[in-house]
Amino acid sequence: MTDYLALARADADLLLKAVAEAGDAAVVPTCPDWKTADLVAHVAGVFHRIETTVRLRAQERLSAAEVGDAPPLDEALAALVDTLSSVPPDEPVWNWSVNQPKVAAFWPRRVACETAIHRVDAQSAVGPAAVTPIDAELAVDAMDELLDVILRARVAFGVDAALGGSIHFHCTDVEGEWLVSVADGSVDITRSHAKGDAAVRGPASDVLRWAYNRGGAVETFGDPAVLAAWQSAVRF
Question: Across residues 126-142, what is the average pLDDT?
Fold first, then answer.
């Protein structure tokens, strides 16, 4: 079983190390509207919101007033790990998904995936050579989450993510393949080897980074319009 909280702690440490090296005012190339101080504040806020949601066993989205101000990132992470470690996985707790159980078990995976992506953001502020690979097992899991949970939710909430064709994502270092199409407000995902109108191929960490618009050393094939549609529609 994946130790999501251990992965989140490790990536949060790398995030803070990168920010200390880059400085609070460094531009985050993967999030060009942000400086590193904005990135840290965002991650601390996400951690604090999740911790409050789970600690209160919230059954709906909490308001900003109910959540309150976030503590510094390291304190927010420590509180979040303590809370998620102490709450039974099957405890009823709200989440924003449209196809997942509303239980506490939803959140450790979400925290690990969120932290890994934002760690890449922080390292990119230091420079391309500073970005280290995301754990391959987590990267595959995060691709599953991005496609089956996040993308489905975005489309259900009305985000126009039509691709004009299908994309095949293929990891070359570990098992992980997906064929994805979005059309007419529906998402179709097949987790298998298949030919799409376009393809993205590379190590799991890089495939995930590309899918999140965070660069990644991948090969791309096929219809460039489909690839461009993904990178335009799937932005966080």
Answer: 97
For residue 81, the model assigns a pLDDT of 96
Which CB contacts under 8 angstroms, 24+ apart, belong to 232-235? Answer: 233/159, 233/160, 233/161, 233/162, 233/163, 233/182, 234/146, 234/151, 234/154, 234/161
Same domain flag for 81 and 191:
no
Q: What pLDDT does 233 receive? A: 86
51 and 115 both lie in a single domain = yes
Range of the domain at 43: 4-130
Number of domains the chain contains: 2
**What is residue 1's predicted lDDT score, i.e. its pLDDT?**
59
Q: What's the confidence (pLDDT) of residue 2? A: 81
Report residue 164 CA to chain centroid gap: 24
In a domain, 144, yes or no: no
Q: For residue 157, what are its two tokens?
A: 């909430």
Sheet arrangement for strand 219-222: 186-190, 177-183, 166-171, 198-202, 219-222
pTM: 0.96
